Amino acid sequence: MNVIGYLLKKQLKNYFVSLKKNPAKIAAYVFIIFFLGLTFVLSLLDKEEAPKKMRDINELLGIAAGFFMFIFSISLYSGLERGASFFKMSDVNLLFTAPISSKKVLMYGIIKQMGLNLFISIFILYQIPTLNRIYGINGIGCLAIFIGYLTLLIACQVCSMALYMFSNGNPKRKRRVKIVFNSVLAAAGALLIYQVAQGEDLIGAALHALRILDYVPFVGWIKDAIGAVIQGEIHTAIIYSLVTAAALAAILLSILKSNADYYEDVLTTTEYMDEVTSAMQKGKPLLDSQTKLKGEKVKSFGLKRGRGASTIFYKQMLEAGRSGKIGINVSSAMQVVIALGIGFFLNKAKELDDYTKLLIILGIMTYMQILMSQAERWTAELKYHYIYLLPQPGVIKMFFASLEGLIKAALEGCFMFLPIGVLVGVNPLFILLCILARISFQMLFTGLSVLFQRMFGSSGNAGLLMMLYLLLAFVFAAPGIITGVIIGAVMYSGSGAFLSYIAAIGTGIAYNIIFAFVVGLFSNQLFMQMELNTKA
Amino acid sequence: MLKVDHVTKKYGKVLANKDLNFSVDKGQIAILLGPNGAGKSTIIKCIVGLLRFEGAITVGGIPNKSLEAKKMLGYIPEMPSLYPLLTVEEHLEFIARAYQLENWESYADELIKRFELEDKRKKLGGELSKGMQQKVSICCGILHRPKVIVFDEPLVGLDPHAIKELKELLINLKNQGTSLLISTHMLDSVENYWDIAHIMQDGSFAATRTRLDMERDNASLEELFFSITERRGEKA
Fold this sequence. Notes:
The structure holds 2 protein chains of 2 kinds. By secondary structure, chain A is an all-alpha fold.
């Protein structure tokens, strides 16, 4: 039997067999399938309603193109810096050294990567009811978006691998490629901002600006193929699909032809990715050659502060300072920029009142906060034995371990809502409540992480459990949000807009704090009940 | 000093430890011997409070998960677990502050010297080799002068000098009245300094012998070990 086929078949089979021994994973699958089923049922129910006026499909295609471009550029940039790899260290040690053609090995890597991409693309399927309701997209259209996204992910990997091979080992060439890459991105970004700033019709101007992405290979082709499927233009869809496939094949061929020994190029990346995956699974911060820090660059030594459980917090501060991630890290900065960007665009929307603008931003940023909440440093503490052995009450240890996250949430809240609040001119009390809301959501997610750790023996930092964690985060955050919206709506007619908004946010904050408080009450026994799990 | 009383640990349906009973007295070195998968690390993790279990474990007569017991416990895990962004010295400072130690610096210096870590004081945890990490892990586990120290495969990854120093340290600690529980599957590493040995197989004790028993019977620990582990099912 073909060795590659054997390997793929056995790995797949053993994965399913291993599920038998992992009820948490099975529960997660059941949960995910249940939600997918619910999604389909909801989309069917929605169809029975009277047909409504749908939004312009070009709006969705524009958003898709923007999202694709974001992923594509990040992928190419990382490819330029570190390369890309479809492989794991086990492949390097066992497959690269075996007498198997490098072409076959590359195909094996791509097939495995496609499987992984399939898994991480599932989130698109959850958007079906929304896409159906807003844009009237049917099942075929959703499938086209799904397949398009999968193809884009493969294109990202292949292109970044090719780019790395092209520039690796030649610093001059690498620098030139970087300059070209950055210049193109900067020009596109500037054009986008200019057009949006000039346009009176906000969405129209943004969509017009995004049409520049039609000319970006893969991003434009895949977007147009999806658009053609949705609009029933099958011939156009086939043409764009063929162009994409041909371009991918050409790049793959050039990888194989130009440098038969691509093993060396992917080795560094594979080792790096292995470290990253291992660090993520263990919830530990990564320290490697890519990290800014090196021992000789450390200028200040010592924790200097802390006694008992508070030492955990000061240790985290020291670590954060050294990794250049004190207070606001890359993820925070990204969220702040996104919030400010949305604020800038929304400020031009005359049809919305000022409080609604801030509420929209709060909603979007809470959504992002959920997605980012698992990367907090405190969950990493649970993977080291020290916190379990420290002779301090559990609730105190929990508090200090998660304090950094709360401070970070407060800082993020200030950077997000203060400038926007001042820009649109809302009551300072409302700005303060938005900041408090962000802190309270951080408390809620910390509490949820504790529950999650207790239930599944993992902080849900990676893989299937991460997906389950995200779903649970939405489920646990929902009651506060829904109650807040109901109370706000009830008060709107009687007490006016401002008070109703205050009541809505206040309710949400109160729910989040109560949830965190209840979990906190139980967490005193946490370290008596929780088990150290360094595996995942 | 350390008492393990009818402890059973299950991972789902798998029985990792089955009704274990033993104690380690003051100034005694007890060793847990056994092949891979015998349940040594599991019982050790139960003792130091990292796993839930059925039964009771006490340190100085106090339940092992209580704060008072934690103060008396030291643990050196099999895989050194250091914070990658803290230096060697900072790991010791972290332990000293977290355990609220006073006048710990000279003992920390002594440990650093003993394990030849002087030139690594300012090195980050993530920059150290596995052997170096293990040395720091040992220093962290004993800095607060615990009354009971639990070592899980302590010699793995250490260089010959560190092994010699660790052996000397273990004997010093024993002489100072510290109770030591050491898990290992490397028989020659514990040859000369143990007081009582428990040979584990399939989650329970297949045999328990004191050093005096063995000397009286003129028997070898190695022979006993292989007679048990190579003939599964037959109790010694």
